[in-house]
From TrEMBL:
Domain CARD: 67-161
Gene3D superfamilies (UniProt xref): Death Domain, Fas, P-loop containing nucleotide triphosphate hydrolases
Positions of the UniProt region annotated as Disordered: 1-20
Keywords of the record: Cytoplasm, Immunity, Innate immunity
Membrane-crossing residue ranges in chain numbering: none
The organism's taxonomic lineage, starting at the top: Eukaryota, Metazoa, Spiralia, Lophotrochozoa, Annelida
Designated name of the protein: CARD domain-containing protein
UniProt xrefs under SUPFAM superfamilies: DEATH domain, P-loop containing nucleoside triphosphate hydrolases
GO cellular component: cytoplasm
NACHT domain: residues covered: 242-364
A Pfam short name: NACHT
Compartments (UniProt record): Cytoplasm
Family annotation (InterPro entries): CARD (IPR001315), DEATH-like_dom_sf (IPR011029), NACHT_NTPase (IPR007111), P-loop_NTPase (IPR027417)
Species annotation: Capitella teleta (Polychaete worm)
Biological process per Gene Ontology, one example term: regulation of apoptotic process
C-alpha cells in the first residue's frame, strides 16, 4: 500500500469521528444563532448532517466565526465604490448562496430591501450586516462570486486594496508561504525515534496514529475527550482560541502532533479530511522548537534564523509585515526544554507580542504553572488505549512491509504491557523486536536496551556525553528509584529532590515528570516516575551498583514467602505476594549475569529463604495467623534464572547440589542455555 493510500484509509477510519465532530459543531452553532430562521436553517442542516453531509458544515462554520479584520477594513474603505459598482444580479446571489455566504433568509431580506428601497441600500445591508458575520472564508468566497458574475473588476480592486494595505501581501507572502510549505513537506516527512541515529526513520504519514486529547473544560479540572480535528475549535466563546497548550508525559507524542500539524499544512490542502476549522485555515504556520527563541528578539528574527535558508532574501521588517497582516499559527514545541530565560517566548505566551495570532505550545506537565491563565484551551495527551496500540504496531508493520503478527503478539506479553501505552516505548519495542527477536527472551535485556536509548537521547538533548549522563544524572536517579520503591511509591518528593543540585536536569532525562498537587491549603510538588516497571529497573540498577555486603543485606530483609494474614473480627490484613519482589530481583539477576560469584551468592540466599531444597512446602498451619507459602514462592529461583542468557557453571553447580528431589537437572544441548530444569 502506498503512503497516499494508507493516508486515505486512515482518513476513512476517522470519518466517523469527524461526523460526530460535525454534529457537535452544528449543535453548538444552534445554541449560538439568534434568529428563528437561522435556527430553522441549522436544524435542517443538523438532520442533514447526520446523513453524513459535509456541505452544511461549511455553512455552520461560517455562522460561527467572524471575518478577519483586514478583510473588514478593506470592505469598509471601499464602501462608496462598492455601493456604486456592485450589481446584486441573480448570478451573484446564486453564487453567494451556493457557497454558503448567504442563506435563503438573507436572500429574501436583500431582495425585499432592493424592492422597497434601492439596490444600493441592499448592497449596503449585505456589506455591513451580512458579509462580515459569515466567517473567515466569506471574503474570498465573495471575491470568487464577483469574478464569476461578470464583476471581476470589483474583485480585482478589492484584491489590489488588500495588497496596498499590506504591500508584502502579494509577492512576498506567496513566496514565503511556498518556501515554508516545501520545507515542512520535506523536513517533517519522517520521524526519527532515535535522533542520533538518522538512518532509522519512519514515514510520518504511514505510521502516524491519530491521537485523542483531553480538553480541560473548566477551572475545576473537568475534561472531555476531543480529537485532533478539534484543536482549533472555539470552546467557551465563538472566538478561535489564540493561546493553546498541549501537555503530556515524555514520549507521549506531543512533538509528533506538532510535526503532523505543520506537515499537513505543508501539504497545502486538507481535501475533505478536516472536519472543523483546521490547520489549513491559517495563511502561515510557523513551526519552532522552544529553544529557537532563545537570543531572538522577535518571532520574525526566529523565522529568519531557524525556518528559512540563509540565502533566502527577506528582511525582518518584511517578515514582520507579513506576520502582522496574515492569519498565522505559531507552533512552539517542548516548552519544558527551553523555558529558562526565554524572554521572547514568554512575551508571546503572555500576549505582549502578537496577541491576535494563534499560538500552540507543547510541554511536559507543570512547566507553565504561573502562565497557565494565558491559555484559553488546554489539552493533555494520554497514553495509547488498546485500539491505538494495535493501530500503532499494524501501521509500523505495514510501513516496513513485514508480518504484523510478532508485533501484535508482543502487545499481549505481560512483562512489557505497561510500556506499550507510550508511543515512544512502543516504537522502540517494535524496532528492537524487528532487529533481534532474541532480545525479548529476557526482560532485563529489553529494559537495558530501552534504557540505553533513553540515555543516548538525554545525552543528545542535554549536550553531554553519555558517561556524564550516567554519572551525574542517572546514578542519583537510581538512588531516587530505590528510595521510592522502599516506600512502595513511584514518586520523588520535593524535599528529597532538593538534596541534589541538578534535579531539573535529572527530570529532563525522561523518567520523571513534574506533578503539582494543589489543595486549598497548600501546594505540593512531587515528581512521578513514568512507569512502575522503570522504578523497578532503576532500583535494580542501584542495587547492582552496591557493594556485595550492602546488597546481601538488602536481600536478606526481603520476604520470600507469600503471606496472607486474616484475623477474624480484627481489622488486620497483611497481604504479600512474592512476585512483588521478583521484578527487582529478576532485573538484578539479569544485570549481574556476568558476575558469577555475586550471582551464586544471591541464588544461595534465595535457595535458603524459599526452602528450594526441601520436597514439601507446607503452609505453617500451626501459625495462629494462618501464614502459608505457595508454589509461587518456592519456584522463585527458577523464575530468576530465566533472566540469564547463560547460567554460569559455578551457579549451576550450587543449584544441582541443592536441588530438591522432584527437580531434575540435565545438561542442555542448546549453546545459549547449557542448563535445563524440569519439575514433575
Ligand atoms: N501519534 C503517533 N503515531 C505514531 N508514533 C508516534 C506518535 N506519537 C509519538 N510517536 C512515536 O513516539 C516517539 C516519541 O514521540 P514524541 O517525540 O512526539 O514525544 P514527546 O511527547 O514530544 O516526548 P518528550 O516530552 O520526551 O519530548 C516518536 O518519535 C514516534 O516514534
Amino acid at each position: 500500500m502506498t503512503g497516499a493510500q494508507s493516508t486515505r484509509r486512515h482518513m476513512m477510519s476517522t470519518a466517523s469521528k469527524n461526523a460526530a465532530n460535525q454534529h457537535n459543531i452544528l449543535e453548538r452553532s444552534f445554541a449560538d444563532v439568534t434568529t428563528d430562521a437561522e435556527k430553522e436553517l441549522l436544524s435542517t442542516e443538523l438532520n442533514y448532517s447526520t446523513r453524513a453531509s459535509e456541505k452544511p458544515l461549511e455553512q455552520a462554520k461560517s455562522v460561527e466565526f467572524k471575518m478577519e479584520d483586514r478583510h473588514k477594513e478593506c470592505l469598509k474603505s471601499n464602501r462608496d465604490y462598492l455601493l456604486s459598482e456592485i450589481s446584486l444580479s441573480a448570478v451573484l446571489l446564486a453564487k453567494l448562496s451556493e457557497s454558503g455566504v448567504i442563506t435563503d433568509e438573507h436572500l429574501q431580506k436583500l431582495q425585499n430591501t432592493e424592492r422597497k428601497d434601492t439596490t444600493k441600500a441592499a448592497v449596503l445591508e449585505f456589506l455591513s450586516e451580512v458579509l462580515p458575520k459569515r466567517g473567515p472564508e466569506a471574503f474570498n468566497l465573495f471575491l470568487k462570486a464577483l469574478s464569476e458574475s461578470e464583476q471581476r473588476h470589483v474583485a480585482e480592486r478589492l484584491k489590489q486594496c488588500l495588497s496596498d494595505v499590506c504591500p508584502e501581501d502579494a509577492g512576498t507572502f506567496e513566496r514565503l508561504r511556498s518556501e515554508l510549505q516545501s520545507y515542512y513537506k520535506r523536513k517533517l516527512a519522517s520521524i526519527c525515534p532515535m535522533p542520533w541515529l538518522q538512518s532509522i526513520y519512519l514515514n510520518l504519514t504511514d505510521v502516524f496514529v491519530e491521537r485523542q486529547l483531553k480538553l480541560k473544560t473548566n477551572y475545576k479540572g473537568d475534561e472531555r475527550i476531543v480529537t485532533m480535528d478539534d484543536i482549533f475549535t472555539p470552546q467557551q466563546t465563538r472566538e478561535i482560541p489564540r493561546r493553546l497548550l498541549i501537555e503530556g508525559n515524555p514520549g507521549i507524542g506531543k512533538s509528533t502532533i506538532c510535526q503532523t500539524l505543520a506537515h499537513e499544512w505543508g501539504e497545502q490542502s486538507c481535501g475533505r479530511h478536516c472536519g472543523t476549522l483546521c490547520v489549513h485555515s491559517f495563511d502561515l504556520v510557523l513551526y519552532f522548537h522552544a529553544g529557537d527563541f532563545i537570543d531572538e528578539e522577535s518571532v520574525a528574527h526566529a523565522v529568519r534564523e531557524h525556518l528559512l535558508p540563509s540565502d533566502y532574501s527577506i528582511t525582518t521588517s518584511e517578515l514582520q509585515g507579513v506576520i502582522k497582516a496574515k492569519n498565522v499559527l505559531i507552533i512552539v514545541d517542548a516548552f519544558d526544554e527551553a523555558n529558562a530565560g526565554n524572554r521572547t517566548l514568554d512575551r508571546l505566551i503572555e500576549g505582549d507580542i502578537l496577541r491576535h495570532k494563534t499560538l500552540l505550545i507543547t510541554s511536559r506537565f507543570n512547566f507553565l504553572e504561573n502562565k497557565l491563565r494565558h491559555f484559553e484551551s488546554r489539552f493533555t495527551v494520554e497514553g495509547y488505549d488498546e485500539e491505538e496500540r494495535l493501530q500503532h504496531v499494524e501501521r509500523y508493520a505495514e510501513h516496513k512491509r513485514i508480518d504484523p503478527k510478532p508485533f501484535i503478539s508482543m502487545l499481549e506479553e505481560e512483562s512489557i504491557r505497561d510500556l506499550c501505552s507510550n508511543p515512544l516505548n512502543l516504537t522502540l519495542l517494535c524496532l528492537l523486536r524487528e532487529e533481534d527477536t532474541q532480545l525479548m527472551t529476557t526482560r532485563t535485556a529489553l529494559y537495558t536496551s530501552i534504557h540505553r536509548i533513553i540515555k543516548q537521547k538525554a545525552a543528545k538533548r542535554l549536550k553531554l556525553i553519555e558517561a556524564e549522563v550516567e554519572e551525574s544524572l542517572l546514578r542519583p536517579l537510581y538512588q531516587f528509584a530505590f528510595e521510592a520503591h522502599r516506600k512502595n511509591e513511584t514518586v520523588v518528593r520535593e524535599k528529597d529532590s532538593k538534596k541534589v543540585k541538578n534535579f531539573q536536569r535529572i527530570c529532563q532525562v525522561g523518567y520523571l515528570t513534574n506533578e503539582v498537587i494543589i489543595s486549598r491549603l497548600q501546594k505540593e510538588v512531587r515528581f512521578q516516575f513514568t512507569h512502575k516497571t522503570f522504578v523497578e529497573f532503576l532500583t535494580a540498577k542501584h542495587i547492582a551498583e552496591m557493594d556485595r555486603e550492602e546488597r546481601m543485606n538488602w536481600m536478606q530483609h526481603l520476604r520470600y514467602a507469600n503471606c496472607y494474614i486474616r484475623i477474624k473480627g480484627l481489622a488486620i490484613d497483611d497481604y504479600f505476594k512474592v512476585e512483588q519482589n521478583e521484578a527487582i530481583l529478576g532485573f538484578l539477576f539479569g544485570l549481574l549475569e556476568e558476575e558469577s560469584a555475586e550471582l551464586t551468592q544471591m541464588a544461595s540466599l534465595v535457595i535458603k529463604e524459599t526452602h528450594f531444597s526441601s520436597e514439601h512446602h507446607h503452609p505453617i498451619s500451626s501459625d495462629p495467623l494462618s501464614l502459608y507459602s505457595r508454589c509461587g514462592a518456592s519456584h522463585q529461583l527458577l523464575r530468576l534464572i530465566a533472566e540469564l542468557n547463560v547460567v554460569p557453571q559455578e551457579l549451576a553447580d550450587v543449584i544441582c547440589e541443592r536441588r530438591p528431589p522432584f527437580i531434575n537437572i540435565h545438561p542442555s544441548n542448546s549453546h545459549e542455555r547449557p542448563f535445563g530444569i524440569f519439575t514433575r
